[in-house]
Design goal:
Number of helices: 8
Radius of gyration: 19 Å
Structural class: alpha/beta
Shape: globular
Strand content: 15-25%
CATH architecture: Alpha-Beta Complex
Helix content: 25-40%
CATH topology: Spore Coat Polysaccharide Biosynthesis Protein SpsA, Chain A
Length: 337
């Protein structure tokens, strides 16, 4: 497991609720982590504690980040402010989660550089949930026309890998799309399998609900805000996977380290918000695969978002926010290298 005692560790959550059970348990369990709570218009005031900082909208406006003037209120992408706050504070590790994901007592993640099972396949997409359960389930953002395909054409090889981000699974109410909730809607307890790593060229959606990021790829944390709430972290995740490969990083998945006590959702509203996910994911992957990239992740972000703007997956405003994100990182991340 990651040896992080001497590292600066930050946990980022957006919340409009009072201090939830998840927030309390993370605070009690991860006593040497700094928890950053990002508020919004509907947020209840949460008092700071020894390891919790609550940033209200008013607090956020006082921060010296260019991106703040572009970010809409009442949008999940305000989490970008938390990322920048952590980076400016010298973060070595950033953990991304939500206020309804409750950590298990043995919450932990594998090392970023480790020997692990690496999945190699001729298939473009792998449904990672199938490696942890026999149930009929798929992650949010997985192409619907891939759900019923039999995943037989893959091999697992144990080898030394560098992980850009670890995605931990979530028990009980895992991250699934509205189609699953409207048709199957079964609570899940994943098997305690060994970690799995996706080789270059293979995609699986990953989210912002239980994800650990290494410092070298912080620039890829950017959440787009001209797409819907249900698309933003999925779009971010697919882009990050593709850009990881340019610097020899891979995406890893590990066992459930949290269980979700899901906040109330309007499932039909989720379905409506997810329509771009269902309709545009394959086009997104086509764009990513054809992109001409370098080893500079910020340059690559600009290239990809310009292409996404051209294909109307995001709007022109997104490219402006990427410029602001780049400027903010150049004033924060580089100063800590």
């Amino acid at each position: 497991m990651i040896v992080i005692n001497s590292m600066k560790k930050f946990l980022i959550i957006t919340t409009i609720n009072k201090k939830t059970r998840a927030i309390k348990q993370f605070s009690n369990l991860l006593t040497d982590w700094q928890i950053i709570l990002i508020g919004d218009k509907k947020s209840k005031k949460i008092e700071d504690t020894e390891n919790i900082i609550f940033l209200s909208l008013e607090d956020q406006e006082k921060l010296d980040f260019e991106i703040i003037k572009y970010l809409p209120s009442n949008h999940y992408a305000r989490k970008n402010i938390g990322y920048l706050y952590a980076i400016k504070s010298g973060a070595d590790i950033i953990y991304d989660t939500d206020d309804d994901n409750i950590p298990y007592d043995d919450w932990a993640f594998p090392e970023f550089e480790t020997t692990s099972d690496c999945i190699t396949s001729d298939q473009k997409f792998i449904n990672i949930y199938k490696h942890y359960t026999k149930e009929n389930i798929w992650p949010r953002g997985y192409p619907l026309d891939e759900v019923t395909k039999i995943q037989e054409i893959f091999t697992k090889q144990s080898r030394r890998v560098k992980i850009g981000a670890w995605q931990g699974l979530a028990d009980i109410e895992p991250d699934v799309d509205a189609v699953y909730r409207l048709t199957v809607n079964k609570k899940i307890k994943f098997n305690n399998q060994t970690p799995s790593v996706l080789d270059r060229g293979i995609y699986c959606p990953f989210n912002s609900q239980n994800t650990l990021w290494r410092r070298e790829v912080f620039s890829l944390l950017y959440l787009p805000s001209t797409v819907s709430f249900r698309f933003t972290d999925i779009l971010r995740g697919y882009i990050a996977q593709r850009l990881f490969w340019e610097n020899d990083y891979l995406l890893g998945f590990t066992k459930a380290t949290v269980f979700q006590n899901r906040n109330n959702h309007n499932i039909m509203k989720d379905f409506e918000d997810e329509i771009p996910v269902y309709m545009q994911t394959k086009k997104l992957i086509e764009i990513l695969d054809k992109s001409i990239l370098t080893t500079d992740p910020l340059h690559n972000l600009r290239v990809v978002y310009k292409l996404l703007d051209k294909e109307n997956i995001v709007t022109k405003k997104e490219t402006e926010m990427i410029r602001a994100w780049t400027n903010d990182l150049n004033r924060t991340l580089i100063h800590h290298q």
